[in-house]
Automatic annotation (TrEMBL):
<dbReference type="GO" id="GO:0015074">
    <property type="term" value="P:DNA integration"/>
</dbReference>
<protein>
    <recommendedName>
        <fullName>Tyr recombinase domain-containing protein</fullName>
    </recommendedName>
</protein>
<dbReference type="InterPro" id="IPR013762">
    <property type="entry name" value="Integrase-like_cat_sf"/>
</dbReference>
<keyword id="KW-0238">DNA-binding</keyword>
<feature type="region of interest" description="Disordered">
    <location>
        <begin position="281"/>
        <end position="305"/>
    </location>
</feature>
<keyword id="KW-0233">DNA recombination</keyword>
<dbReference type="GO" id="GO:0006310">
    <property type="term" value="P:DNA recombination"/>
</dbReference>
<dbReference type="InterPro" id="IPR011010">
    <property type="entry name" value="DNA_brk_join_enz"/>
</dbReference>
<dbReference type="InterPro" id="IPR050090">
    <property type="entry name" value="Tyrosine_recombinase_XerCD"/>
</dbReference>
<dbReference type="GO" id="GO:0003677">
    <property type="term" value="F:DNA binding"/>
</dbReference>
<dbReference type="InterPro" id="IPR002104">
    <property type="entry name" value="Integrase_catalytic"/>
</dbReference>
<dbReference type="Pfam" id="PF00589">
    <property type="entry name" value="Phage_integrase"/>
</dbReference>
<comment type="similarity">
    <text>Belongs to the 'phage' integrase family.</text>
</comment>
<feature type="domain" description="Tyr recombinase">
    <location>
        <begin position="62"/>
        <end position="272"/>
    </location>
</feature>
Amino acid sequence: MGAVARVLGLGDAFAAYARDHEAASIRRCWSTWNVLCTFLYTGEQLAANPMQLVGRPKLAKALPKALPRTGVEALLETVAQDRDSNRQTDWAERDLAIILTALLAGLRAEELRQADVGDIRTTDDGAAVIHVKGKGGKERSVPTEAELLAVVETYLDSRAIRFPQAEKRRAAEGSGLARWSARSPLFVGRDGERITQGTLQSRIKRAFKRAGPDAQPVPGALIHGLRHTYATELAGSDVSVYTLMKLLGHESMTTSQRYVTAAGTETRSAAARNPLYAMIPPSGNVPSQASAADADPNAPRQMDR
């Protein structure tokens, strides 16, 4: 069997295959052969796995895609229309709070699900800080403005109307955050319990679908697309890579750098410093031959023909 594998010349075979196949197809083919050869090697049918010597193309790292502002507007307007809906599954105040928390605080889907009311702490100036329990138990604090806090508290007030006998509701009088215990889940489903992953995804998917062509979601990343939008908007506002890393909860600055690259602000700023821009005439027009000749009496003139 080992002799057969050598005769096959896997390296040459994959080189020929690569000439008329995309990188993703080549990688899938490589993986299939690697599984087979690993199985044969484990069963002592091969002396070694020859696939370790066969190269495979690296997948290009796609830049994060963000929603355009027209898409964000369409999405928010669509959700707002549900205020007049009689469907039990529709809850405009909650869905709006979820979408805006993702757009203005950059929370991941699971971070939205696991957030508690007590994770939002107000500041003296009427704004708030969201304490996020991120990947791997890593925590971060995300500052938000009063406008987002108002949206969240409006949702919490509507929740008190939906669930007036909720066990976790505080006895003390108040509105918004004050009506709920710190350990109460921030976002709940129509049963009053912590929102499920399925409900979260389905509500966002429905909003995108109804928002029309202006709000095309990032393929395979509904809520994460909102997080991409948050990061890209900040990168476009010249927020430093280090600050982005802290706000997004990234382990590596390299991950955050991708948003700066996607926004194009850093490369544009560098390109704009090219001193050759100073050579462009103020009007932006290239001087004609006639005007150049008039300006220089020693300049050669074309003869009439």
